[in-house]
Amino acid sequence: MEYIRLEDIWKIYTQKKKKTEVLRGLNLSIEKGELVVVLGPSGEGKTTLLRIISGLLKQDKGHVYLRGEIVDNVPPKDRNVSMVFQNYAIYPFMNVYDNIAFPLKLMHKSKEEIRSKVLEVSKMLRIDELLDRKPSQLSGGQMQRVAIARALVKGDDIILMDEPLANLDAQVRVIARDELKQLHRKLNTTIVYVTHDQTEALSLATKVALIHQGVIQAYGDPMEIYNNPNSDWVGSFIGTPPMNIIEGKIEGDYIVSNDIKIPVPITYKKLLKDNQKIKIGFRPENVKFGEGIEVYVDMVERVGPYTVIYVDIGGQIIRLIEKGQAKVEKGDKIKFSIDQDQIVIFDINSGKNLIEEENDKNS
Ligand SMILES: Nc1ncnc2c1ncn2[C@@H]1O[C@H](COP(=O)(O)OP(=O)(O)OP(=O)(O)O)[C@@H](O)[C@H]1O
User: Fold this and answer.
1) 211 within 8 A of 38, measured Cβ to Cβ
2) 104-112 long-range contacts, CB within 8 A, separation 24+
3) What average pLDDT does this structure show over 222-246?
4) Does 259 score more than 90 pLDDT?
5) Predicted confidence band of residue 168 (pLDDT cuts 50, 70, 90)
6) Which of 6, 10, 20 to mutate to test the pocket of ligand 1 (most atoms within 8 A of CB)?
7) Where is the ABC transporter domain (predicted)?
């Protein structure tokens, strides 16, 4: 069931007579129970999007539907949507109990009901031992759980989260991410989660929505987007290190780029013409070492479980990943081949995946 729908959303900010079109006809449809991560570079309108869903900000054009009903003129308090902010927005002068209880007090709930709800969510988030503490006596991870508890206490079935883990250090962040995932499974609420951290997005999301230039550029299963990006921009934005994109030309059954020659993948064969200029994309991990293209090593980065080897192909730097700690050094000559099934081909001008482009034409 479609639970949140954004239809042709436009948002233009005007500051000192300068107009910034942040959202430009954005469409997004979210099913009940999904954990959708809106991912995109800084300043692309992610927070703006959340604020429009919550009603804190009004779109200039387009419509917002929640639970199948249009809510354009419904004020935030009546949208039954909770929000968790990056800075937690916890009141420093209230203890944890009162912070969590606050939304229920605003709703004039009875003392008994407030008590039982606060205890229920604080147990769930394992902060029931901390209810008497002031926020200044909490760690970052605990503070973040208080913020989530306060969002859950009203029982809203749509929760919006704006980079809620951004202030946590790397280790706590991984734990918090896992906890959030489990919590989502347990509660089956619909969550829209904003981040610019793609590791977070890929590991957390049931669906990723990639925002860029005011619209959703790709939306779907995180691994499907990773493996089969619909454009060169998506391929080079998702993944650390990102997808390698190189320009080339079709010559018979081969893609030729500088002095390398790669057989055309079967899936793309009928979509390509001789002499056609294209871009090819391949993930750094989808290569085999030992034979094939001969290159010199430009730089080596050992990360522990794998090694990133930078090589120069006709002036373009390509990243290759070898499992474990590779025994190569700068200046070494190595050979590699690209896994045929994992090559993606993009239009030279539009940057669109040629298979997607063909599907669009036929639909
Ligand atoms: N009230 C405002 N007036 C003018 N410009 C604004 C206003 N709010 C946001 N912007 C601009 O709109 C753009 C989008 O902002 P937004 O906060 O939605 O982006 P974001 O993707 O959430 O960024 P980040 O990842 O850095 O938090 C930015 O360029 C920002 O400077």
Assistant:
1) yes
2) 104/153, 104/154, 107/154
3) 94
4) no
5) confident
6) 20
7) 4-238
Which residue from 9, 17, 48, 216 has its CB within 8 A of the most atoms of ligand 1, so it is best to mutate? 48
Half-sphere exposure of 80 (CA within 13 A, CB side): 13
Q: Is 87 in the pocket of ligand 1 (CB under 6 A)?
A: no
What percent of the chain stands above pLDDT 90?
73
* Residue 47 pLDDT > 90: yes
296 C-beta closer than 6 A to ligand 1: no
Tell whether the model's pLDDT for residue 173 goes beyond 90: no
Q: What residues have CB less than 8 Å from 182, skipping those under 6 apart?
A: none
| Dihedral in degrees, nearest 10, Cα atoms 96, 99, 100, 105 | 140
Cα of 20 to ligand 1 centre, how many Å? 9
Instruction: For ligand 1, say whether the CB of 214 is within 6 Å of any of its atoms.
Output: no
Atom of ligand 1 minimally distant from the CA of 49: 18
Token pair 């391929």 is found at 235
313-331 per-position pLDDT tens digit: 878 889 999 999 999 999 9
Name the CA radius of gyration of the chain, rounded: 24
Distance separating alpha carbons of residues 231 and 347, to the nearest angstrom = 9
Distance CA 6, CA 232 (A): 25
Higher pLDDT, 361 or 224: 224
- ipTM for the complex? 0.96
Atom of ligand 1 nearest to the CA of 14: 4
Q: How far is the CA of 13 from the centre of ligand 1 (A)?
A: 9
Per-chain mean pLDDT for the chain: 92
Q: Does residue 13 have its Cβ closer than 6 Å to ligand 1? A: yes
Does residue 360 have a pLDDT over 90? no
The pTM of this model reads: 0.91
Ligand 1 contacts CB of residue 133 (under 6 A):
no
**Which domains, and CATH codes, for the chain?**
2-233 (3.40.50.300), 244-362 (2.40.50.140)
In the predicted model, what is the mean pLDDT of residues 101-110?
92
**CA neighbor of 270 nearest in space, from 362, 358, 360, 361:** 358
Q: Amino acid letter at 349?
A: N
